[in-house]
Amino acid sequence: MQRNLHSMSQTNYDLIVVGGGISGASIAWDASLRGLKVALLEKDDFAHATTAGSSKLIHGGLRYLVNGEISLVRESLRERRIWEQNAPHMVDPLPFILPTYGHGLKGGLVLAVGLTMYDWLAFDRNRLDDPDKKIPAYKSISREEALKLMPSLRPEGLTGAKIYYDCQMFAPERLCLEFILGAVEKGADAANYAKVDGFVKSDDGKTIKGVTVKDTLNGTTHEIKGKLTVNAAGPWADIMLGLSENGKPSRRLIRSKGIHLITRALSDKHALAVQSKIGGHFFVIPWRDKTILGTTDTVFDGAPDEVGVSEQDIKDFLVVVNDGLPGLNLTRDDVEHFYVGIRPLVDTTPQDDEDDADSYNASRAAEIIDHAELNGIQGFLSAMGGKWTTSRHLAEQVVNMVTTKLNLRHAPATQDVPLYGGATGRFKPFVDQAKKAHADLNPEIVENLTRYHGSRYEAVLATARERQGEEADLLKPLSTTTADLGVQIVHAVRHEMACTLSDAVMRRTGLGTTGHPGKEAVEAAAALMARELGWDDATRTSQIAELEQGFLTLDARK
Is the pTM of this model over 0.85? Predict the structure, then answer.
């Protein structure tokens, strides 16, 4: 996968996709599978924002049942199964504990009814090739069993718990990238650090014929032409609308800020759903030998590029966590890492009620807008809102609309096609076989490779043999505390469009996603990228400094 905006400016596309998060990546993948010539443009790095800032869950949305969004729950549960089937290296079942307190409307009976419906709506959940991915029906456990599994639960009033299942992503940034890698393999062109800052319009201004793009790495500008353009810019989608609609976007987004904290492991294999009296519900999620605490849900009124985590954010959320789970008694010192994301929620309130925006209760359903019907702008669609779990289906609906407009009759295909690294078959036996085939490598290293690259992991190892004399050094871990290899950094540069140190450390590998990987690993990764990209000492130092900023709160960056 090579970045070439000049070449893209010389190509006529069927479809231009603006936005390289999971929505845009899914659209590019679907359209490419149907034979369309696709251009994907992202203003920063792929998956750098909302896509990376999730709770790592692929879930049906049990809470949506309370809001009466039955169709959204059914859609999400169907998509959950498809994720397990098509990305077995990235998506796994995860058991959740739901504690019950009191009786009547607050007790286990009401919850049992909801979970029974949840299971019923997931009637096809085990139509899978891999028996290890199958999801059991919910079950009830006693008060004693609940406290044994999760000793930090508030014991007062605890009557028992329910255990149900959803799914978890190993690395959402990597999963998103696989859609893009797959699309490029099928003929798409993609570019990160390609900021769309305007539209190419017909003389009468009523038809969009392409986009103007600034290459933020070298400052050059380009025009890229296409029959149709899709706005899939996530939290920036209404800003893109403003560029096309003379500064007055026809749809407004509610931007919901969600922070997550990463701590030492606080539980074994079970996640926990907790209701705090002072801050609503949150999850305690085991992930890669750590625990994710999240998420918050507050309206963010600032520019999406300015979002971050403050010390006050962390302090406030710890108060909520300790209220819900007083047994943890967590302090700031327990927080090893943190991150933030913005949920782009379509605002359905009247424009004169903007002060009443509510992110918590706003629907997670997506909206697909045909601007020809909305405001007479031809050649332009927008995909707004939605959630990680339903992104594939959203893309299918968008591309259905695209093919109709282009008078094509290509049937959807993504429901049954493995992702770029997803052709592993049963994943556990696949990993076992990989460990046997590469007995010279530490088993943890092999497992990490198969997790991140799935069925394509051998191609990563082959990168170490591309240039004579490199193999031995590139097959060494980047530090004594990580399973990430030097070859993964080099592969990210040569074949996955990693342009900055942060791209490689935070999104092509998992080196920095659980917290700071240590000076040794950072400097080793920077040295490899400097060699590949020709950085001088000043550039390498600035790249390290930029990466370090991502591990700091807003307060510390000042």
Answer: yes
